[in-house]
Amino acid sequence: MENPYKRRKDPELVRQTILNAAVEIGATDWHHVTFQSIAEKTGISKGGIIHHFKNKEELLDCIMKQSLIELTHWIIEEKKLAGIENGSMAYLQVILKRNSDAHYKSTMRVIMQAILVNEKYVLLWEEWFAEHIIHGSRIEQSVNSLILNLVTDGLWYADNLGRNQINTHQREQIAETLTIFAKTAKN
C-alpha cells in the first residue's frame, strides 16, 4: 500500500514553484529573497530548495535567464501582433502595453534589481538587448533608434521604480508619437 503522506516528486514543478516565489518576493526587494522566505511562502523545506539551487546567486541567475526568455517572448509576440520588425518599437510597445500585468511587473522589477545588484547581469542585459532589440551594438544604431530606446528605457525605469504617474491616455499618446518617430528609425 502506498504511503498517503509521501509527496509526489515533480522536480520541474518544485523548481518553478521556488522560482515563482522568489520572483514574487524579489519584486519588492531582492534582499528579502532568502531560502527561509521562500520556504515560508511555498512550504518547501530549505533543504528542498538547496536541492534545486545551491545558493542565492544560482537562483538569481536562473530567474534572470528565465525573465529574459519571457521578455523575448513578449517582444516576439508584439512584433507579430503589431506587424512590426523594428525591435526598438516592439520593446516600446511591450513596456507601454504590459504595465498593468502583475506578472510582467514582477518580472521586470526582478530584472532591474538584478542589474543593480551585480555587474554580470548588466552584461547579460546588454547582450540580450543587442541581440533582441537592436541587432548589433548601440554604436551601430541610428540616432533615431537610439532616442527611441532611451525613451523606452526611461519609461521602463520609471515604471519599475514606481515613479511613473503616466495615465493610460498619456501612454497611448506616447505610443502614437513614438510610432511616427520610429518610422524613420532602423533597428
TrEMBL record:
<dbReference type="InterPro" id="IPR041479">
    <property type="entry name" value="TetR_CgmR_C"/>
</dbReference>
<dbReference type="Pfam" id="PF00440">
    <property type="entry name" value="TetR_N"/>
</dbReference>
<dbReference type="InterPro" id="IPR036271">
    <property type="entry name" value="Tet_transcr_reg_TetR-rel_C_sf"/>
</dbReference>
<dbReference type="InterPro" id="IPR009057">
    <property type="entry name" value="Homeodomain-like_sf"/>
</dbReference>
<protein>
    <submittedName>
        <fullName>TetR/AcrR family transcriptional regulator</fullName>
    </submittedName>
</protein>
<dbReference type="InterPro" id="IPR001647">
    <property type="entry name" value="HTH_TetR"/>
</dbReference>
<feature type="DNA-binding region" description="H-T-H motif">
    <location>
        <begin position="34"/>
        <end position="53"/>
    </location>
</feature>
<dbReference type="Pfam" id="PF17937">
    <property type="entry name" value="TetR_C_28"/>
</dbReference>
<keyword id="KW-0238">DNA-binding</keyword>
<feature type="domain" description="HTH tetR-type">
    <location>
        <begin position="12"/>
        <end position="71"/>
    </location>
</feature>
